[in-house]
Every structure is written in C-alpha cells, then in structure tokens.
Batch of 4 targets.
Target 1
Amino acid sequence: MLVKQSLGLDEAKLIGEAALTAARTKGLAVAIAVVGEATYLQYFVSLDGAGYWAGEGAIEKARSAAEGGHPTTFFEKPLNAGRFSMVKMRHMALEGGLPLIIDGKCVGAIGVSGAPPHEDAAIAQAGVDAFAPQQR
C-alpha cells in the first residue's frame, strides 16, 4: 500500500498564520493562500485593504507552486527571458508562490499576492520557514 505525507489543517494554519504575522509586521495588505497537494484551498485570508485581485492571485500562485513543485519564479524566469510560449501555461508566472516539501515531495504550497513581488515572496517564505522544522 502506498503511504504518503500530506499537509494537514494544523500545518496549513501554522504556515498561513506565520505569513500573516510577517505581512502585518511589514504593514502590507495582502492575501495569503495555502493549498494541499491536490491544490485544494486549506487556509485563506485577505487583509483589510488588499486589492480585489489579490485573493485570486494568492490562490493561483499557491496552486501553481503545488502543481509544479517549484516556486512560481520557476515559471516567471523563462517568460521574462522571452519564452512567450510560457504564456499558454496554466501556471501563475509571478513571484510569491512557494512549494511545501516533505521528504523531497511537494505536499502543498503557499501563495501571497498584493504587495510588490519581492515582498510577496518574503511573506510566503515566512510561512515556509514556520513549516521548515517539520520537514524531514
């Protein structure tokens, strides 16, 4: 029988709350989404003042990172280098989505949207860092 790790609600909340704390510390109004391996939403928050588009952006960044098993910059870099065929991909090619890895396998992802790209990524990284001690 196949046994695999999966992201639970407690882990999703831990990741999301760490990112939320980082966003509030920076004074940034963003949306934060955490998805499991199957890309279903497990945690979501949109801070007061976040743009109406930020919520969907955070969810799509998280889904892209979970489906691809890579940070969303993995998809963004070829696009910025002129590989316009990447536009037809269904992955969100904007910084701010990071996969969550256990035993070398992607078990979910976090996406953050609403701030400048480097800030979205830093807030997402705070969530990953909170999860990191649980990785094996």
Note: The CA atoms of residues 68 and 121 lie 17 Å apart.
Target 2
Amino acid sequence: MSEPAVLVLRDARALREGDGVRFRVVLDGAAEPAFAVRWHGRVHAYVNRCRHQSLELDFGDARFFDEPFDALVCTHHGARYRPDTGVCFEGPCAGARLTPLALEERGGELWCVGKMGT
C-alpha cells in the first residue's frame, strides 16, 4: 500500500532559489518531518533528519543552506550535504545520505508522493 501524497506548496513558484519549506510526510506508516529546497532551478526534497544523530537539520525556520548556498547544513553539528543528491560530503556522517523524497508538480502545486524510487 502506498502512502498518501502530501501537498507541499499551493504555488510551486513560491519556492525561490535558496529557499526551503518544511512539511510532514507519512513513510512506512509513521509521520516524518520533511523539507524541500530549490537549488539551481530544481526542487529537491528530503526527510528532515541528519544522518549523524537523527536531529532535524534546521531550527524550525526552513533555513537549510550555508551562506554561499552550495550545501545543506545541519545546524547542530555542521554536517554538510549536497543539495541535489543528499550525500554528506563533510562532517560527522560523511558518506551517509539524506532520505530523498519524490516530488510532482500538479496544476502548479507541489506534491510529495513518497520516497524516491518507491
């Protein structure tokens, strides 16, 4: 049984370059914090859990990027993730990967439809 799709944004265009948006998604029957960001014109979404200690990456403010906007950063311990792949390339969990989420645009709205590849 697949999980229900979740509306992320009513207007997908509202997510501007470098911006993030938080939402919740049900995965394997459990509600999980999640986020989406726009980076280099594309929207990417992940479960909002650092691979180091399962803490949310942000402080609840949907700010996920470092200052030069080239990495998603865990505010707790500084793990740095590639925005397009979710792979940690620096920090205490180097080599680990955020859980990627699949997105769809439907009539200008942005929807999360579950884990990537499922």
Note: The mean pLDDT is 93.
Target 3
Amino acid sequence: MTFQRNATRALLAGAALALGVSGCASWRANHENTASASTSAHRGPVQTASDAAITAKVKTAMAADKNVSAADIDVDTLRGVVSLNGTVKDATARQRAIDIARNVSGVLDVKDHLRTAG
C-alpha cells in the first residue's frame, strides 16, 4: 500500500509540475514575441511548453518506478529530444531509465549521458 500511495503522490506532483511549467513557458513565449527586435537578442535554445511537459512526464514516470532513482537523474528536453544525465546504480537501472523516457508520449529521441555507480 505504501508504494501505491507514494506512486500516486509522485504522479500528482508530476502533473502539477507539468501544468505549472507549461504555463510559465507559455507566458514567456508570449511575452518574448511582443518584445521589439532591438531588445531581443539570441539567447540560445528555448525550451517550449511541450518540452517542459515531456520533462515532467519523464520525471514522474521515473519517480513511480521502484528500479530507478529519479532524484539522481537530470532530465532535459529540447524539441522532443530527452537528455538523461546523472548516476544510476547499475546497467539495469540505466536501461530502465532510457526505456521509461522512450515510452513517454512526445519523445522523439533519448540521449543517454548516464553513468553507473561504482
């Protein structure tokens, strides 16, 4: 029962994060588009609202999986490409993290930069 309760909490937290981040990214995109050309310098890649939602979904799915330590994995998404950085306990956890990311809707590719401990 404790695992189910923790998984439910992780899913709810991830959903709240996705909604919050999506709103912030949307606000930023709308306000940057209204800036004049003279004040908008190229700032490098900008994460879209859908990228933020993908990142939240991947982190939520990892948090709900007992074989992956989501706290040790940094997830970044740019144009549907998910980059995984951090340390995992073994090759099985590494593969599971990659599989989780690949199975999230909207993910186009997964870049594995994970290291195994030990």
Note: Confidence is low (pLDDT under 50) at residues 29-40.
Target 4
Amino acid sequence: MTAETFERFAEGRTLYFSRDGAPFGAEQYFAGRRSLWQFEDGSCEEGRWWGEGRLICFRYGEAASQCWRFSGGPDDFVAESMRDGIETGFALRFSHADDRPLACPGPKVGS
C-alpha cells in the first residue's frame, strides 16, 4: 500500500488492530499525516507518519521510527513490522474502522 493510498483510506478515521485474534490497539488519523495511537490498556501516544517506498513509517515522541508493510485488500489487510527491509515477525491485522475519536485524556494527547 502506498502512502497516498493509506492516507486516502485512513485520514479522518480510527483504525482498529488485533494480534493473534485479540484486540491490540487503535489509531486515529488526522490531516497532515498526524496520528494518535491508543494501546489496549488505554494509554495513548501522539505520532506522525510518512511513506518510505512501499512502507508506512511512524514516529511517536522521541522513540525510534517504526516501519510497516501494509498488504492485502482495503477491508482486510495486515501490517507487518519491518526493520532494515526485513520482516520482524510482528504483525497486526486490521479489524475495522470508524469515525469516532479515541478517548485519550491528558495534556499530551488529542487533536
């Protein structure tokens, strides 16, 4: 999935992901390639994303960037973690999307 395709699909929506059949987290996407990730425990991280070739990369706060290869169809895709062009073995499956904002209280998070 290219960055442009991902942007058209995600901007203005909240995407939900699972791992091994269990909910893992959700990410809300804003204009300007900004995002807000919410872990299943309710904690949140603001981030930015960009394209690097066929990868979608994210950076949250001061943490190192994380790149993912999104593959599959628009309603059924998998995000595979990549490091230096090699799969890490960690993958998340897209489960669904909606247009509801995430509940991320606190001074450091939100739109």
Note: The longest strand covers residues 86-98.
